[in-house]
Structure formats: C-alpha cells, structure tokens
Write a structure and sequence with these properties.
By secondary structure, the chain is an alpha+beta fold. About 55% of the residues lie in helices and about 15% in strands. A hairpin with a 3-residue loop joins strand 2 and strand 3. The longest helix is centred in the first third of the chain and has 40 residues.
Length: about 375
C-alpha cells in the first residue's frame, strides 16, 4: 500500500472512494453511449433499417462505453483518493482536475452542447423543408414528397456527419490529444482518394446532382443506358431499378448520360390503330373517342385519367392499311393499366361496328395457260 499511497487509507474509505469513482464512470459512459445512439438514430435511423441490435449500432456503442469508462476511472481515481485524505503517489491532482474542469471542461461541454443543438436544428429545418415542398395539389404532393424525402435525408446525413467530425476533433484537442496527425492523415487519404478513386468521386458527384435536380426519384419508371425498370433506390453512388422480369439492375451514377423518365408528373399511353384503306378514318376516330369517354366515366379508371382522348391523326401508310395514332393522358404509373383496358374495349367496339382489322394480304395475277397442242397444230 505504501508504494501507491502517500498516506494509506483504511479499507472502508478505500472501498467507498473506489465505488464512487466506478459509479460515476458508469454514469458518464452510459450518458455518452446514449448520446452517440441518439446521433446515430436521428441522423441515419429514419432512412435506413438500423435497430438497436444492428452491428453498426452496437459496436460503436460498446467502444464508446468502454473508452469513457476507462478514461473517467483513470482520470478521477487519484483526485478522489486525494479528496478522501489518501493521495496517490502518481496521477492527476485535485487542483489539476479542478483547473481543467473550469477551463477545458467548460469548453468541452460547450462543444458537445453546440453539436447537439446543430443536430437538432438540422433535423427541424429538414422537417420544415419537407413540409414546404410537399404543399400543393394531390398529384403534386406525391411528386414533391418523393423529392423531399430524398433531399431531406441527404442533407441531414451530410450535416450530421460534418458536425460530428468537427465536434469530435475539437473534443480531442480539449482533452490534450494532438489532432495534427489525424488532420494530416485525412489530407493524405483525401489526396489518395482523389487520384485513385476518380470513378467513385464521379459517381458520387453525379448522384448528388441527380438527386438535387430531381431527375430520378424512388418509385419512377425510367430507361437508363438501354435498360428500363422501376426505381427502388437512388443512392449517391448507384441507381437500383428492377425490370419487368424481376431482375435488379445496379447502374453507377457516373455512367448515366441520358435518362428517359416515363412517370414524371404525368404519362401518355400511345396507341397505333390500324385502319383499312376502305374504312373511314374519321369514323374510327369518333369510335375511339367514344370508347375513351366510356372508359373515363368508369369509376374504376376515372381517377387515373387526366384528359380526353387525343387523336393525333393519320400517322403512316402501310402496304395493307393506314395507321391512326391516338393517345390518352394518365397519372404516373397508371398508363399501362389504362392503355390495356382501352385496347380491350377498342377491339369490342370494332367488332360491334362491323369494322375489321386489316390483315396483310398479297394479290397474285396468273396468266391463262396456253394450249400447246393447238399452237403446234396451227398452220404456218
């Protein structure tokens, strides 16, 4: 005992002092872990599938709890025994801890409080941003809500990550650690990423502008680089979409040069009606308008149709028919359902009106056969 203490304490004082230090260390470690968990869930939990049991959450919480527990125990044990009348031969003195608490400790607390306030303010501003963008008519609300969720999550994650990194570096400096090697390493890492991961940087920058300019959103049906499908995720680096066969296409954002969005604001379903040369095209156009009018009056399809059928006119001449092009305006993602029902009703209307669909045919003229017997018997 004499090699550790200047004045050896009795066992009751030693147990009480050690218990108080351990209890305080446990409280500080728990509070720090709760703060880290709060930042993780508030920053990323609503936009991912993170839970309290996820390894991405449990591992950093355990590390923070262990580091804080050891730091508080090592730092406060000598001052606590000194306060109990049994100072240790080595370690921090009560005067040093008091001086640091009045200077660096206050600054540390202010940094943590400022980081907490910035995170909360960012969350409130993102909520307000989402509410303002989502205002409008019923159709516009759905479109704007997609963009608001995507942009809101991106802005919130970036700001929280930046605040946590800066606050962490400032806290390390306040506890006496030299952050110069960390900053130097970050600079070297950034330089290495700049030279060695140019494709990755290009993908991230392209993905940022795709999200910012609202080119592609989750729930859209798009065609990108010759591949089309339903957009399931729009990330900073990749675009994930699933085609009609169920195959998932993962496309790097940096390779996207042109996008065909088939569900932006509204959609058209275009139908090429074949009409025989002997059939009145105006009568067929009137018939198509009547069919579309009945479809729009149907309660099952009326909410998805935005306007009357538009007859664009005769679009092409074929060898056996002419093509009458029409189109109908629908809400996004419903053009195929409305178009299929429109085609079914057009076929029924054709049959009731006695109009036949033109069928390719070929006419062949055959010359009469010659009677070679009579030709040979004819006198010269």
């Amino acid at each position: 005992m004499d090699q550790f203490f200047v004045t050896p304490p009795d066992w009751q004082t030693a147990l009480f002092t050690a218990g108080a230090v351990l209890a305080l260390a446990v409280l500080v470690a728990s509070a720090g872990a709760r703060l880290v968990r709060f930042l993780i869930f508030k920053g990323f939990g609503e936009h991912t599938h993170l839970t309290s049991r996820s390894p991405a959450v449990r591992t950093p919480l355990r590390l923070v709890r262990l580091v804080l527990f050891l730091a508080v125990t090592i730092a406060l044990t000598p001052p606590a025994f000194q306060l109990a009348g049994a100072p240790l031969r080595r370690g921090l003195r009560l005067e040093q801890v008091t001086h640091w608490a009045a200077t660096g400790g206050v600054r540390l607390l202010m940094i943590a409080l400022a980081a907490f306030v910035l995170v909360r303010a960012t969350r409130l501003m993102v909520r307000r941003f989402e509410q303002q963008i989502s205002e409008g008519t019923q159709l516009e609300v759905l479109e704007r809500a997609k963009r608001a969720r995507t942009l809101g999550g991106l802005i919130q994650n970036l700001v929280i990550a930046l605040v946590c990194i800066i606050a962490g570096l400032m806290m390390l400096r306040e506890v006496g650690l030299d952050i110069t090697p960390i900053l130097t390493g970050a600079g070297i890492l950034g330089l290495a990423v700049g030279f060695g991961a140019q494709t990755l940087v290009k993908d991230i920058i392209s993905g940022f502008f795709i999200i910012l300019e609202n080119q592609i959103r989750v729930g859209d049906v798009v065609e990108v680089e010759g591949r089309g499908g339903f957009v399931e995720e729009v990330n900073l680096r990749t675009l994930l979409m699933r085609d009609l066969e169920g195959s998932l296409h993962v496309i790097p954002n940096g390779s996207i040069t042109a996008v065909k969005n088939m569900t932006r604001d509204f959609s058209f379903y275009v139908i090429d009606l074949p009409v025989g040369f002997s059939t009145d095209t105006d009568a067929v156009a009137d018939l198509a308008r009547e069919v579309a009018r009945g479809l729009r009056e149907d309660p099952a399809y009326a909410p998805f149709i935005l306007d009357d059928l538009e007859v664009l006119g005769v679009d092409a001449f074929r060898d056996w028919s002419v093509t009458l092009k029409v189109r109908i305006k629908t809400v996004p993602l419903k053009q195929w359902m409305v178009g299929r029902e429109m085609r079914r009703r057009l076929k029924i209307a054709y049959e009731k009106a006695g109009i036949e669909f033109p069928i390719p045919s070929q006419r062949t003229n055959v010359a009469p056969a010659l009677d070679f017997a009579k030709v040979s018997a004819r006198p010269e």
